[in-house]
Amino acid sequence: MDRKAFLRAGHPPTLLAAFLYFDLAFMVWVLLGPLGVQIAADLGLDHAQKGFMVALPVLAGAILRFVMGVLVDHLGPRRSGAVGQLIVIGALAAAWWFGITSYHQVLLLGFFLGFAGASFAVALPLASRWYPPEHQGTALGIAGAGNSGTALAALFAPGLALAFGWSNVFGLALIPLVLVFVFYLVVARDAPECPPPKPLGDYFKVLKDKDAWWFMFFYSVTFGGFVGLASSLTIYFNTQYGLDAKTAGYFTAACVFAGSVVRPVGGAVADRIGGIRTLTAMYLVAAAFLVLVSFALPAAWMALAAFVAAMLALGMGNGAVFQLVPQRFRREIGVMTGLVGMAGGIGGFYLASSLGYARQATGSYQAGFLIFAALAVFALLGLTMVKARWRTTWGAAHLTSARI
């Protein structure tokens, strides 16, 4: 990639603001996962309740991504992002100030944390609209690398909970959130070429296009696998291998960091060799390692290595999907980001909740991992079915400078 050409093509301050907003939003979106061991102990939750607790913010974020995608097209990404950040800051402040004493209260907080997960539908259009087709993979990979915030939550939240109590972690999280909010307001700018708002009914027209459903399915596996594991692994390492909450958090942080740091790499590789080739390899690798971990490897470090490999594949796959989406739906990027992101969140909700229910029902996590590995195989088969048509229609060389 020509770095100078990339810097000249867009607006780096907005790209940085999008990354930081996304990063901190994702940090608090999955916060209940790293705190799950302590919360479950204090509230007396069973395996199924723990699984649903960490999965609910993912589901709420999935649904709210579509809402935020519509808001982006009406208010613009910058204003929409400001609204979302204020809601999350308010919810965390209330949880910290008044405290949480019941399962239903933690679920209510989980719903409002969904607005943090919905940041995906804002940060990506905020960055994407500044960049031409040949730089979409790199730009969206950088903005999307904000999912590294999930690693920050896993790395610091369990230790802070031990030192200050888990409810006070909500208050501590407000410090970086407010700082990034101020920075965002100062430097973020909407791109000059923002499409005009459309009537609400027009947003559902894109669902008549079968490619929209393919992208939603592909992302439900790559991002769903990433965020589902990010939300669940602290509890998994604690339950499966008896690691204390802090050590389990460190193990989770290593897995999540691996998956998040390679998202820009996945976008850049897709820019170079094409999103289809990149996704093909990533689905194969992810499915293989998810099958491996389903057999309850005998040592925690073995499971860690397998999860890191799976997360590397899923993280690169996230970048590859969003190298392709703007090529196919550039004019509808706001609503498509919301729809595809919603599907990714639903995939994450399914994985996180199914792991808890599998453990509750069978005493093992195996069924949850095997079913999701099968979904990765189905995604690979689907990609094989559509790739010829994509490369000869909207991805044809005479229509775009990007590699498909």
Describe the model.
The chain is built from 17 helices and no strands. Helix 2 (12-29) packs across helix 8, helix 2 (12-29) crosses helix 9 (149-164) and helix 12 packs parallel to helix 15. The chain has helices spanning 3-9, 12-29, 36-43, 47-75, 77-98, 103-117, 120-128, 136-144, 149-164, 166-187, 210-241, 245-261, 263-273, 275-293, 300-328, 333-362, 366-392. The protein is globular, with a radius of gyration of 20 Å. The model has no long low-confidence stretch (mean pLDDT 88).
Task: Please give the structural blueprint.
Layout: H1 3-9, H2 12-29, H3 36-43, H4 47-75, H5 77-98, H6 103-117, H7 120-128, H8 136-144, H9 149-164, H10 166-187, H11 210-241, H12 245-261, H13 263-273, H14 275-293, H15 300-328, H16 333-362, H17 366-392
Helix pairs in contact: 2-6, 2-7, 2-8, 2-9, 2-10, 4-5, 4-6, 4-7, 4-11, 4-16, 5-6, 5-7, 5-10, 7-8, 7-16, 8-13, 8-15, 9-10, 9-12, 11-12, 11-15, 11-16, 11-17, 12-15, 13-14, 13-15, 14-15, 14-17, 16-17
Radius of gyration, taken over Cα atoms and rounded to an integer in Å: 20 Å
Shape: globular
Number of strands: 0
Query: How would you state the average pLDDT, rounded?
Result: 88
Main features:
single chain; 0% strand; 404 residues; 79% helix; mainly alpha; 17 helices
